[in-house]
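Postdoc handover notes: sequence design on the structure in folder B. Input tokens:
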């Protein structure tokens, strides 16, 4: 039990600087990117918002915990849940940044097919997820 707690603490301690970095970057993002600019890109169209969110998430890959922080901030700006969900799913599953390393490790064909399949599934997964969340909040709660 103590070994697991020690490993968990070490993992959190290793991840903590990255999380602080993400929070600081979100502060810079808040200073340089206006809410109006974001709302002009994400206009409330479920499909387009999901597609734009998927593109952004695919460009910037990272750890899931960082995407939750960024997603929470985007929701505070008034960005649709469709876009934020697509961003988070794409952030975790699609990765153009690490694509060269993935191609070297797993082969070019596999890496390209995996990324393409992941990207194509992001929009349907985001829409389905938001519809499920909407259903649960309307009918179950």
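Designed sequence:
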């Amino acid at each position: 039990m103590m070994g697991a707690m020690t490993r968990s603490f070490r993992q959190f301690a290793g991840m903590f600087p990255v999380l602080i970095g993400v929070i600081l970057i979100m502060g810079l993002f808040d200073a340089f990117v206006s809410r109006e600019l974001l709302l002009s890109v994400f206009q409330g169209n479920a499909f387009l918002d999901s597609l734009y969110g998927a593109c952004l998430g695919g460009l910037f890959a990272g750890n899931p915990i960082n995407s939750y922080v960024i997603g929470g901030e985007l929701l505070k700006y008034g960005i649709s849940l469709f876009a934020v969900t697509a961003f988070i799913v794409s952030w975790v599953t699609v990765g153009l940044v690490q694509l060269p390393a993935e191609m070297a490790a797993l082969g070019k064909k596999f890496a390209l097919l995996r990324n393409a399949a992941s990207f194509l599934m992001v929009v349907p997964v985001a829409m389905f997820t938001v519809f499920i969340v909407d259903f649960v909040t309307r009918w179950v709660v």
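Context for whoever picks this up: The chain has one domain: 34-140. Don't rerun without checking with the PI first.
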